């Protein structure tokens, strides 16, 4: 997630419904480590490229093999609710552990993570291409809908991060989450086309997702889901910041947080008005798991106004809002609860993340995406 102007604005942080999180960043279980340094390189890593109609270049498209059901092979895949049970949080934790190393664009580990995205999507049954838009590379996985292939549902997460910071929550958690949701949904026959993407250069100004959104033609986008920081939670009381301006704008959520004693263990969703119904669907699935969820819907005027609620619009969903396309952002509130955001107070490492919290995010999003895709 991009650094918010002035560390989210000192004035904003000074007006809170719940006090600042403790400096030690305590609370929540650690994400399981695994996977090591070995890179999974997709066959799409060919250096040759072809021109696309948008003026960008893409690596030759690779048609994926049959989906890898893995640990979820015994779960049901006939309904959004059944698909929730297919989520394997251990796979998520292994991917987080692999990704969570310094990976600024162009670095060796950035390339390894890009390759892991391509390989994971291909293994999940997606047709994969790498969109080279000049300064960076997006990894795009596409699975054609069975009934309405020209209608698209999208899930994306950025894989780049700032130099010198492991970026476990920001955004290894989101990339690992997108890959796990892709694996699960690869088992389902979805009426609409599903695209799962790993965006590049979000930290530089949403460059990767903006290149995709600006060139998106020939299909109707039903909604874009964005994962950016989905792994940190704390059950400690008064560990969640909710700035005064947000509390005034969303009083119902502010009241819920007070009743929840300021615990930083709820799922946050930010949507524009055209994506609100999809956000509420996700909320319903999350709360069926017992996970408090707060939906904040921005008006057309608010969603692109950085002087109003731009603090809620600092990630890749904005690229779609700029094009008038429905989009929502699923996250853990980032700097409002996580001291190690951008390594400001300690390193953003996998051991600080909460695997159970992330699993609930993935389950609820899986069901919401499946519903949006017509299942």
Estimate the strand proportion.
15-25%
What name is given to the CATH topology? Aminopeptidase
CATH class: Alpha Beta
In CATH terms, the superfamily is Zn peptidases
Neighbour order of strands in the largest sheet: 1-2-3-4-6-5-7-10-8-9
Low-confidence stretches: 5-30, 32-57
Sheet with the most strands, sense and barrel status: 10 strands, mixed
What are the main properties of this structure?
single chain, 375 residues, alpha/beta, Aminopeptidase, ten-stranded mixed beta sheet, 16% strand, M28_fam, Peptidase_M28, M20/M25/M40 family metallo-hydrolase
Structure write-up:
This protein is of the alpha/beta class. It has one domain (10-14, 53-372): 3-Layer(aba) Sandwich (Aminopeptidase). It has helices at residues 10-14, 80-84, 89-99, 108-123, 168-185, 207-215, 244-249, 251-259, 276-288, 317-321, 355-372, and strands spanning 50-51, 57-58, 127-132, 137-143, 148-158, 192-199, 220-227, 267-272, 293-298, 327-331. A 10-stranded mixed sheet has the order 1-2-3-4-6-5-7-10-8-9, with helices on both faces. Helix 9 (276-288) links the parallel strand 8 and strand 9 (293-298). Helix 3 packs across helix 11, helix 5 crosses helix 11 and helix 9 crosses helix 11 (355-372). InterPro entries: M28_fam (IPR045175), Peptidase_M28 (IPR007484). Residues 32-76 have a biased composition (Low complexity). This is M20/M25/M40 family metallo-hydrolase. Residues 138-362 form the Peptidase M28 domain.
């Amino acid at each position: 997630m991009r650094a918010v102007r002035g560390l989210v604005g000192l004035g904003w942080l000074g007006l809170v419904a719940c006090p600042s999180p403790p400096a030690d960043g305590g609370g929540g279980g650690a994400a399981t480590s695994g996977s090591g340094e070995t890179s999974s390189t997709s066959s799409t890593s060919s250096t040759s490229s072809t021109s696309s109609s948008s003026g960008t270049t893409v690596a030759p498209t690779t048609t994926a093999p049959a989906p890898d059901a893995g640990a979820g092979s015994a779960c049901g895949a006939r309904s959004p609710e059944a698909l929730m049970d297919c989520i394997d949080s251990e796979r998520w934790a292994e991917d987080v552990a692999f990704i969570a190393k310094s990976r600024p664009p162009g670095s060796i580990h950035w390339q390894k993570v890009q390759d892991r995205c391509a390989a994971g999507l291909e293994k999940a049954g997606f047709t994969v291409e790498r969109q080279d838009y000049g300064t960076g590379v997006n990894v795009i996985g596409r699975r054609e809908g069975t009934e309405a292939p020209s209608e698209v549902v999208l899930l994306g997460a950025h894989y780049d991060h700032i130099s010198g910071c492991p970026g476990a929550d920001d955004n290894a958690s989101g990339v690992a989450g997108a890959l796990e949701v892709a694996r699960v949904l690869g088992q389902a026959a979805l009426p609409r086309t599903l695209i799962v993407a790993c965006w590049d250069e979000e930290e530089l100004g949403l460059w990767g997702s903006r290149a995709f959104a600006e060139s998106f033609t020939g299909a109707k986008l039903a909604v874009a889901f964005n994962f950016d920081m989905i792994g940190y939670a704390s059950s400690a009381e008064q560990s969640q910041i909710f700035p005064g301006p947000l509390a005034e704008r969303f009083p119902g959520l502010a009241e819920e947080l007070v009743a929840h004693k300021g615990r930083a263990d709820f799922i946050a969703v930010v949507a524009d008005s055209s994506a609100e119904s999809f956000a509420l669907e996700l909320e319903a699935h999350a709360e069926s798991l017992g996970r408090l969820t707060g939906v904040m819907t921005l008006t057309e005027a608010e969603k692109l106004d950085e002087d109003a609620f731009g603090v809620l619009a600092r990630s890749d969903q904005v690229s779609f809002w700029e094009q008038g396309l429905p989009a929502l952002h699923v996250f853990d509130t980032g700097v409002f609860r996580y001291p190690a955001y951008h390594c400001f107070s300690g390193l953003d490492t996998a051991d600080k993340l909460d695997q159970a919290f992330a699993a609930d995010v993935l389950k609820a999003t899986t069901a919401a995406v499946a519903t949006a895709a017509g299942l």
